Model the fold of this input.
Amino acid sequence: MKLRLFPQEPAGLNLLSQMAQQIVLASATLAEILGVPADEHGKLVEDMHNIEAKSAELHFALLTHMRTSFVNPLPREDMYALSRYLNEAMEKMDAAADLVALYRLDRLPKRAADQPGDHQPAGRADGQCHAQAQ
Done:
């Protein structure tokens, strides 16, 4: 058995990673909600609620893990902040899905439907960011 000077448990990072994966699923579901007729919103909003519930479970599992583990790979405050921000983002996407379904929006105004990725970054005529150009 290999002994480490500073032992680390990756479980907290795994939980954060799973929360981030739930955000990806939620953003895909929200995009789907925005692309279907209002009659089809019900099932997708239910899917969004399930994704949000899974994310909340992961958030509370991370809080429990941080309270019970002696050594964490990141400072507790940082892990808590990351988890809280991911949880807040998930709650806002869930609320947005609820509002779209509540008001039975068939389409969004063009300005609201524009995605940030659709615009070219300032200073780059080819649309690539600095990291992609290298």
Q: What stands out?
A: The chain has one domain: 11-108.
